[in-house]
Amino acid sequence: MQSRLESLSALGIPTEFHSYNGLPHGFGLGTGTVAEGWLQDAVHFWQQQSGTTAIRSAKTNTKPSDTIYSLNGTRRNSLQPGVNIVDGRKVVILKYSAKRQ
To answer: Is 75 helix (H, G, I), strand (E, B) or coil?
Structure first.
């Protein structure tokens, strides 16, 4: 991972890496662990890098007059998880589900 971070940094690509003591990769939301809050940190980093103007739930409604595209330029009929371009504004839709034990 260190080598990958150094390569990206050498290309001028912003990077951020967090290692959480005692946790393997794939610790979910980190609730109740030293990693709690990692998702908010990640979203903040993504917002800074992408220029995103809003983070909304996947249930966000759009007006019929809204023009929605994916990052690759594909026209969409509705917001999708990921980055959407809505009338020229970047909007990130986060979608995750937390299963109850």
So the answer is: strand
Other beta carbons within 10 Å of 91? 20
Dihedral of the alpha carbons of 84, 1, 28, 94, in degrees to the nearest 10: -10
Point out the residues of the chain with pLDDT beneath 70. Answer: 52-62, 90, 92-101
- Sheet harboring 89-94: ordered strands across? 54-57, 89-94, 82-86, 68-70, 75-76
Tell me if the pTM is above 0.90.
Answer: no
Residue 99 pLDDT = 42
- Taking the C-alpha atoms of residue 88 and residue 101, their distance in angstroms, rounded to an integer, is 41
